[in-house]
Amino acid sequence: MTDSIIDSHIHFDLYNKKNRLKILEDTDLSSMITVSSDLKSGIMNLNLAQDDQRIKPALGYHPEQPLPSEEEIQKITVLARRYKHRIAAIGEVGLPYYLRKEDPSIDLGPYVTLLEYFIKLAAELDKPIVLHAIYEDADLVCGLLQKHGIRNAHFHWFKGSSTTIQSLIKNHYYISVTPDCVYKSKSMNLIEAYPLNRIMVETDGPWPFEGPFKGKLTHPGMIHDSISKISEIKRLPIQTVYSTIYQNTTRFFRL
Question: What whole-number distance in Å separates Cα of residue 91 and Cα of residue 118?
Fold first, then answer.
């Protein structure tokens, strides 16, 4: 079990059935946190979780899209409350960084309001929160988390300045890295700067990767390459890295 892995952030509902079965054949895969993008995604993830105990759903609304209706927000909330004991977290939630890059006229205010709503829901249900909050958005999100006394926060595929990285470390928040850490210097620098006991690994699948993974189906097995790179950067035995990251993830999501 020393090489057991947990994918801390995957969109399992976005894979077709054939590829889902292929992923579940991986005997090293202990668990996966499958985050939701909207109500439909959340329902599908809850259903998928009934087929395999390794599938741990999270409910939320991905910020890189138009705002949801009030009805959709309420239905997601009802699901989260009803299945409180079956979900691992509230997520994926956050702020629309890339959407605003494409259209700077987008009003951030309603997205902040929605995120704050989900932060309150996570607090109410005593669940960790999985965040899409990068670069300068992370500073704003840190403020919201502090305002509501949230400690269990996971900044997935984090990107940000050294100042923001220090802020996350100071608040004991968790980050996760993707297989791009094998070939991207920014991700390598983040690994070097961040304490190992607050790092998790993810694929964000089915998002595709470049480098040695170009043209390949994104799958949790790629996490072995990420762990190997973390071991190299941290100058630690690879089994120490496997063990620490596994413990980090089980502790954070209470698996």
Answer: 8
For 189, the domain range is 5-253
**Any known ligand binding at 156?**
yes
Query: Cα–Cα distance between 1 and 237 in angstroms, integer?
Result: 16
pLDDT tens for residues 9-28? 999 999 999 999 999 998 79
| 139 labelled binding-site residue | no
Nearest 5°: phi and psi at 176? -135, 150
Chain segment 85-122, per-residue pLDDT in tens = 999 999 999 999 999 999 999 999 999 999 999 999 99
State yes or no: 154 annotated in a binding site.
no
Confirm whether residue 62 is marked as ligand binding: no
Rounded to a whole number of angstroms, the distance between the first and last alpha carbons of the chain is 16
**In contact, 95 and 116? CB cutoff 8 Å:** no
Q: Residue 47: which CATH number?
A: 3.20.20.140
Given a contact cutoff of 8 angstroms between Cβ atoms, the answer to whether 130 and 104 are in contact is: no
**Residue 210 and residue 252: Cα distance in Å, rounded?**
29
Residue 85 annotated as lining a ligand binding site = no
And the tokens for 20?
Answer: 């889902």
Nearest to 35 by CA among 51, 46, 50: 46
Query: In a 10 Å sphere around its CB, with 0-12 CB exposed, 13-18 middle and 19+ buried, how is residue 38 labelled?
Result: middle
pLDDT at 1 over 90: no
The count of structural domains within the chain is: 1
Query: Given the structure tokens 């087929």, which residue do they identify?
Result: 51
Classified as helix, coil or strand, 229 is helix
